[in-house]
Design brief:
- The chain is an all-alpha fold.
- The protein folds into 2 domains: 63 residues, no CATH class; 52 residues.
- α4 packs across α5.
- It starts with a helix and ends with a helix.
Length: 118
């Protein structure tokens, strides 16, 4: 196999991907450590996943009754996905609060047990 043959080895597979691969790989590498390698299947699945997300957001924007899609409609469509990060922060905050409540309850139980043993 010659150096450029891998590009033409399976042309129907590369044509089935919705986006050009290079910009996606560039973005991925920008956020990965320099020593990490990205497997081809991961690059392809990221491409498909991004297309799937685009479809979901577009379907949500299509629910708008207006003839054109404006920035507000777009922001509303992606709100769910952007809120996930905030929900994770809230979850961590709640877990810390629950842990504090549990510690307080454990302390009260120990105090009660100590007082009842007297």
């Amino acid at each position: 196999m010659k150096r450029g043959d891998f590009l033409t080895e399976n042309p129907e597979k590369t044509e089935s991907l919705p986006f050009p691969m290079a910009p996606i790989v560039r973005l991925m590498k920008k956020n990965l450590s320099k020593e990490k390698l990205i497997k081809k299947v991961v690059k392809e699945e990221m491409n498909k996943w991004l297309a799937n997300m685009c479809e979901k957001v577009t379907k949500k924007m299509n629910e708008s009754p207006y003839a054109s899609v404006d920035l507000h409609t777009f922001k509303e469509a992606i709100k769910t996905y952007n809120d996930i990060e905030d929900m994770e922060k809230d979850k961590q905050r709640i877990l810390v609060s629950l842990d504090k409540i549990k510690q307080d309850c454990d302390m009260l139980i120990r105090d009660l047990d100590r007082k009842l043993k007297v």
